[in-house]
Amino acid sequence: MRDYSRQVLSGEGDNDYARYMRTDALLSLQRRPEEMVHRDELLFQIVHQSTELWLKLACSEIREATARIQDGELDGATTLLARASLAMELVTSQLEMMRHLSPWDFQTIRTVLGHGSGADSPGWLSVRRDTRTLGRTFAALVEERGIDLDGMYRAERKDEIYRLAEALIEWDERVSLWRVRHYKVAARVIGHQVTGTQGTPVETLTKLIAHRFFPELWQIRTHLTETGPMADPYTDSVQGGSL
Fold first, then answer.
1. What is the pTM of this model?
2. Rounded distance between C-alpha atoms, residue 82 and residue 50, angstroms
3. How many CB atoms lie within 10 A of CB 211?
4. What are φ and ψ of residue 96, in 5° steps?
5. Tens of pLDDT, residues 80-137
6. Burial of 106 by CB count in 10 Å (0-12 exposed, 13-18 middle, 19+ buried)?
7. H helices then E strands: how many in the chain?
């Protein structure tokens, strides 16, 4: 009979789970109790460290989706984008833990953060870089195939490019919702009219909320509304220069 109690993997750890998951290393990445200036440093670090892990996964999916688009595997790319969007949703939801961080207690934690800022997050920098590459790849696909995006959205039959476009919108929206939640958390903890650890005003975050990675896909929605069955003829004529 096979002995499942025996470790078969090499590496550190008392069992194969610990060796494969590298739990010894993972659980040693937080400051030890004797190093902490406040016990909620554990909460603060785990929220941010787990964010980096989820963003690492999300960006891995984004890069693979980009490669799938280049290879013409559009449905495969759509599936991967859905996984990236779910990862971003999880990143956003775990910010709820920060609601349990007292604004005054955070001032103690802030004394040991140095100039550390979310702007330097490797995960966030990857999101920006990889999403821009994804956008360029999608634009090249549209141009190469001579796709009329407006007509595609009006068509009754929704094809693989439509599904891909909607997956891009979903990703863009999830990133935006994360930005909104991050701003709200920051304002809740340290206030609105203050500066962050790198001297950047918290209110600057509000300017990022309106950013769109795929503006052409968002603009289509505006155009469809302006030209749809419920469009205002007077407004349309004014915008068209008829009056």
1. 0.86
2. 19
3. 12
4. -60, -30
5. 999 999 999 999 999 999 989 999 999 999 989 887 777 789 999 999 999 999 999 9
6. middle
7. 11, 0
